[in-house]
What we know:
The structure holds 2 protein chains of 2 kinds.
Chain A: H1 2-15, E1 33-44, E2 47-58, E3 62-66, H2 73-80, E4 88-93, E5 96-98, H3 103-108, E6 111-114, H4 126-131, H5 150-164, H6 179-192, E7 197-201, H7 209-224, E8 228-233, H8 236-242, E9 245-250, E10 253-259, H9 265-273, E11 291-301, E12 307-317, E13 321-325, H10 332-339, E14 350-353, E15 356-357, H11 363-368, E16 371-374, H12 378-382, H13 389-393, H14 412-425, H15 442-455, E17 460-464, H16 472-487, E18 491-496, H17 499-505, E19 508-513, E20 516-522, H18 528-535, H19 542-546
Parallel strand pairs in A: 3-8, 3-9, 6-7, 7-8, 13-18, 13-19, 16-17, 17-18
Antiparallel strand pairs in A: 1-2, 1-4, 4-5, 9-10, 11-12, 11-14, 14-15, 19-20
Helix pairs in contact in A: 15-16
Chain B: H1 2-28, H2 33-45, H3 48-73, H4 81-98, H5 103-132, H6 136-155, H7 187-195, H8 197-203, H9 210-227, H10 229-239, H11 241-246, H12 251-278, H13 290-300, H14 305-329, H15 335-347, H16 350-371
Helix pairs in contact in B: 1-2, 1-15, 2-14, 3-8, 3-9, 3-12, 3-13, 3-14, 4-5, 4-6, 4-12, 4-13, 5-6, 5-12, 7-8, 9-10, 9-14, 10-12, 13-14, 14-15
Amino acid sequence: xxxxxxxxxxxxxxxxxxxxxxxxxxxxxxxxxxxxxxxxxxxxxxxxxxxxxxxxxxxxxxxxxxxxxxxxxxxxxxxxxxxxxxxxxxxxxxxxxxxxxxxxxxxxxxxxxxxxxxxxxxxxxxxxxxxxxxxxxxxxxxxxxxxxxxxxxxxxxxxxxxxxxxxxxxxxxxxxxxxxxxxxxxxxxxxxxxxxxxxxxxxxxxxxxxxxxxxxxxxxxxxxxxxxxxxxxxxxxxxxxxxxxxxxxxxxxxxxxxxxxxxxxxxxxxxxxxxxxxxxxxxxxxxxxxxxxxxxxxxxxxxxxxxxxxxxxxxxxxxxxxxxxxxxxxxxxxxxxxxxxxxxxxxxxxxxxxxxxxxxxxxxxxxxxxxxxxxxxxxxxxxxxxxxxxxxxxxxxxxxxxxxxxxxxxxxxxxxxxxxxxxxxxxxxxxxxxxxxxxxxxxxxxxxxxxxxxxxxxxxxxxxxxxxxxxxxxxxxxxxxxxxxxxxxxxxxxxxxxxxxxxxxxxxxxxxxxxxxxxxxxxxxxxxxxxxxxxxxxxxxxxxxxxxx
Amino acid sequence: xxxxxxxxxxxxxxxxxxxxxxxxxxxxxxxxxxxxxxxxxxxxxxxxxxxxxxxxxxxxxxxxxxxxxxxxxxxxxxxxxxxxxxxxxxxxxxxxxxxxxxxxxxxxxxxxxxxxxxxxxxxxxxxxxxxxxxxxxxxxxxxxxxxxxxxxxxxxxxxxxxxxxxxxxxxxxxxxxxxxxxxxxxxxxxxxxxxxxxxxxxxxxxxxxxxxxxxxxxxxxxxxxxxxxxxxxxxxxxxxxxxxxxxxxxxxxxxxxxxxxxxxxxxxxxxxxxxxxxxxxxxxxxxxxxxxxxxxxxxxxxxxxxxxxxxxxxxxxxxxxxxxxxxxxxxxxxxxxxxxxxxxxxxxxxxxxxxxxxxxxxxxxxxxxxxx
Lengths: 549, 372
């Protein structure tokens, strides 16, 4: 019965083989279908999240699920993991039709999912976290008070990590691990539960370039051992690096399934967005002028009281984009907080804007010196999520005469007019000035901030990771805005963790390591390798970034 | 908009569940719940004097509800409405006894003294939070006790204490806001009210202008929150103080302002209570609970000014009429506390409703599958 169904599916596959030709390029063993989702539709209220989507994944295949934010990728995978149930359509696992009523059914069928936000107990060790829920018990006693067999737990964790090449010390506590290592623990947790089908939700969103390279290796390794892997992502480069096949979803609809080695990033982007996308925004040569921002010997302490920024010197001039690149946690956040008045500067250091000192001024005073900021965490610092779009648009300017009277009454009409003007100019969707920021996609939330900050007409625009979590369409938009700002003769200070972004957008690139600038290059006189080595602190980190080719 | 309607729906369902579960408890206790609810209903609406009493009972908790709701809106949890109520009452009683100005000056003056004193009392908690990071829940609870014993001390001050009693002297009549207080006991008044028994019935309780001032306060609070830059800043700090700070808003100052206004509202309740109902203050063994009731009122009212007015009336009505089932059928009036507890409990778990509605959807989709 099972065999017959399998066969049927193969025939089906051959009939409409165009969307998914099957990964038989190198080996014929891979052809067994492990996951088949057929004509899946999922409706929430009036909203169709998935509209008749079909996807087939084979054994040993790395299958990417590509789409913009809100396209329905995560919904589809939550259906496969049993978190939601489809409104229509059928799911087959290893050829058998299944009803995935909840995640434990899915886990029982060998499906595992690593969520974007990890679900680990920080004060437990790696081994304790991995066996949690399926702990080995001493003497195989099956009762709730039976003692844990920690030795066995550690052994089995070591076994799995050896088998799949995921090196990690089972006795380390989670809180002492880097984000990349924590992700490894999550993957090990799935493998411990015998997962054959692994779903990774935006696995690279939180990783450094080096960690991404490591993850790619792990994924290759797992697929070589016959695991089927589905990666939810909107990063094209990683699909090219990791995936065999890629299914593209746009606004809940199935678009296409592509054989990754035989298509370009441009093809993928075009399918995802539905129009041609410029991955590298073209720009004229910079015509930099007088220095706008000047930082001298800046020292800033982090929350633990240690010097996170330690003798930092930098100049950003009008008409240029200066990109500050570095691995996360090298003092970038503290630096920006110090400039914008959110964090105290230690004595000796100075920050000047247009020659005027703004060291240790309040955020309001810094703002009045014509500095605007696109903050690192748009939901924490950039927006009041429970405010409407129009209320967010006047976060700094609500007290201006154009928006409020002398006695402090808000002028709602002019606020609405102002917001509507920005909504149409910056194409913010939904185009409803009363929509809550909370209900907008990440890209549109970012557009609110960009619209607001650019409209301040600042001399200096500080953009901290402005494209974090955005899809290619929105990234293009953000980069265009930054370049436009530069072309208008403004200074732009771009702080980013993404090497590609800095290389594409910046005119000069400064590398930060341990709170200091280690080198400054003109963007066209350096490359990924050189900067990668410096980001890692000279020789030691060079290997990892060099491995990126 | 639809989410607002949904919230209102959840509130109404919670209230219904509160009545049902309280009914079951009454039944288990051997009382007829329908009889009890009938007594309560008639206990509010069958006579105008009952309506009048309900309004009098509701006035202070509408205001303490507003106080808590205002703090909530600005991201603060003001458990100190209780103490601020006491401070407002004490300051007004003290000023009302020692000052004796013409009514049109006396009334606003002693009212303002109560409001400002209570506002400062609340502001202390705001200051402690903004300056030293002391959580307002801790500081306001402690301030409640300080307020209680401060009042007990002030009541006993010689010259203010009414001899041979545990209460202060009454405030001067010029500071009273009880409607037609002198007239209704005058010969002309008595004669008139005999002819018009409905009006007489309504005026028999110490009906006072407090409710109108409470309405006005709700209106002003709505206005401040939604139409002014001050309200904008307060809400920004309440929703996301990080973004507010990033946007150049002075978070510390706004915390103190918020606690001042919140305290002032609770103090207003206390002042009006003295000026309209009690006329004096007395030694308290424990706090009276107006402030704590305000927390429930704010929660049921969804922290909106209009919501607080409505839920204040609901709460006041339940408390007033709940006492009547005790005398009529010897059912414990504590059932009202249980009922209110249940309502708040269910309001606090809207997630439960979401789960329930999702279950329903699931069942429907299963059914449709089966039909195929």
